[in-house]
Each structure stands twice: as C-alpha cells, then as structure tokens.
Amino acid sequence: MDTDSKLIWRFAVIGLVVSTLVFAYIQLFGFFDATLYTLFAAVCPPSLLCIPFSDVMKEKGSSYAIWVLIGLTNTGLYAVIGAAYVGLRTKQIHPA
C-alpha cells in the first residue's frame, strides 16, 4: 500500500473516530448546548441526520442503526477529503 492510500485510510479512520466520539458523548450526557451542537455539525456533518430521524431515534435499536449510518457516512466523507488532499498535494508536487 503506498503512502497516499495510507493517508486516505487515516482520514477515513479519523472520520469514524470522530463520529464515534460524538455518539458516545450524546449517549453519556444526553444533552448539549447550541455551541456544542455547532461543533458536532462542523466535525461530523452527517450528525445532522439526527434531526429528520429524531422520532425514529427514540427507540434504542433504531438509534444505533442510524448512528451506524452516520458513522459510515462520516467515514466516507473524511476519506473523500483525504483523497482531495492527496490529489491537491500531488498536483502541487508534480505540476503538469
């Protein structure tokens, strides 16, 4: 595996960790203020899926399923960001 692929995987893992930490915080404390919610939305944009699914998330099983979806989506988003970073970095190193 080359270094670019490893970097993209690292970004993806960071995305999964971030969404897991947001989920853990919400499960532990259950509440947060507007500033913290804005921070959650900035580092884990798929967490905004909690808004349209708020009625469904009242059940514990549904909540876990939606957070798995949020975690996978955030992982993919961070992987795309990592791929863009790698693409921009290699473009600057090797101009056409």
Arithmetic mean pLDDT: 88
Number of strands: 0
| Most strands sheet | none
Helix/sheet category: mainly alpha
Helix content: over 70%
Radius of gyration: 16 Å
| Distance linking N and C termini | 25 Å
Short descriptors:
96 residues; elongated
Q: Can you lay out the helices and strands and say which pair or pack?
A:
Elements: H1 3-29, H2 34-43, H3 60-93
Helix pairs in contact: 1-3
Describe this structure as you would to a colleague.
The protein is mainly alpha-helical and 96 residues long. It has one domain. Helices cover 74% and strands 0% of the residues. It has helices spanning 3-29, 34-43, 60-93. The model has no long low-confidence stretch (mean pLDDT 88).
Short description:
The protein is mainly alpha-helical and 96 residues long.
